[in-house]
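Inverse folding, one chain.
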């Protein structure tokens, strides 16, 4: 046992002293070097400052079916603001918005999001936890509640859907819209099947044989949860807890756990809607960022550089 502990200690030390620093160096070089990274950060801060001056969103009719749900926080509030403004402008009509505090939304960021006006409702973290304690108690759902503490992204499932009913369209904050999102507007008016985006590369984190052994069905390719329309009261939380526990027990924790669970949910459904990849682009190219032709961009991975330097300016102008 002591030898095993020593091996684990050496492995953690090697990870901290070599692999993580080398990973950061490779990332900096992929982004053009230290000076380019510094310039991207300067323009990111410029985007954040610009978001604080965005005007309130138009207020929809009280019975409007158009409602977006976003998880946000201190690090992402300004991306949320630009995402919503781009959606409303491209849709040509107002929407209701429900924002969910990831546990870090307090002070000025919360105030700036409230300044977007009465179209926006803010679900604060303490209220979300109270609801989860009633409908997803830790004693019955230990794996989901543990992952929720250590993997904020899984709150896109737990915090938005647990203990609630009806269809909800969740969108990530790092999206921008440039043309009328007809697929999303049609779905919001008459939701009848799960909706999701398509990824640029498959990112599940877990092996297909394991995922398919748990669902008993083929896992669909390229599911991306940056757009994710689900019916809250249609989710089987006992099954999600079981899947979560078994994935981690057999292949360890992974950043893409939430997306894997969404893909597993999709595998069980008789029908689903995939947003067309040509119009709803995950990781747009530099040329597409400079001159957007698609309906939507999702700025993941290497597209972040163009997002902070160029993309948001299309919306600001």
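Residues assigned per position:
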């Amino acid at each position: 046992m002591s030898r095993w502990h020593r091996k684990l200690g050496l492995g953690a030390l090697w990870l901290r002293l070599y692999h993580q620093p080398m990973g950061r160096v490779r990332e900096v070089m992929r982004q053009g070097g230290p000076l380019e990274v510094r310039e991207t950060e300067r323009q990111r801060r410029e985007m954040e400052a610009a978001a604080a001056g965005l005007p309130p969103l138009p207020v929809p009719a009280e019975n409007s079916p158009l409602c977006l749900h976003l998880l946000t926080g201190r690090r992402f509030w300004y991306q949320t603001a630009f995402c919503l403004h781009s959606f409303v402008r491209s849709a040509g009509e107002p929407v209701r918005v429900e924002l969910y505090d990831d546990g870090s939304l307090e002070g000025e960021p919360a105030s700036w999001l409230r300044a977007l006006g009465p179209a926006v409702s803010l679900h604060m973290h303490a209220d979300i936890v109270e609801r989860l304690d009633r409908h997803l108690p830790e004693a019955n759902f230990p794996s989901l509640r543990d992952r929720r503490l250590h993997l904020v992204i899984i709150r896109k499932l737990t915090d938005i859907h647990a203990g609630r009913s009806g269809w909800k369209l969740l969108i990530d904050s790092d999206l921008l819209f440039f043309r009328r999102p007809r697929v999303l507007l049609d779905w919001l008016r008459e939701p009848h099947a799960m909706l999701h985006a398509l990824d640029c590369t498959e990112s599940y984190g877990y092996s297909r044989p394991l995922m398919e052994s748990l669902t008993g069905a083929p896992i669909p390719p390229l599911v991306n949860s940056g757009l994710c329309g689900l019916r809250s009261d249609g989710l089987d939380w006992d099954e999600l807890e079981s899947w979560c526990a078994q994935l981690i027990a057999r292949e360890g924790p992974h950043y893409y756990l939430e997306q894997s669970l969404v893909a597993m949910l999709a595998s069980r459904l008789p029908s689903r809607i995939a947003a067309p990849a040509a119009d709803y682009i995950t990781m747009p190219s530099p040329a597409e960022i400079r001159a957007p032709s698609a309906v939507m961009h999702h700025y993941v991975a290497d597209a972040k550089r163009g997002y902070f330097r160029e993309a948001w300016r299309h919306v600001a102008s």
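The first helix runs from residue 2 to 30. The mean pLDDT is 92.
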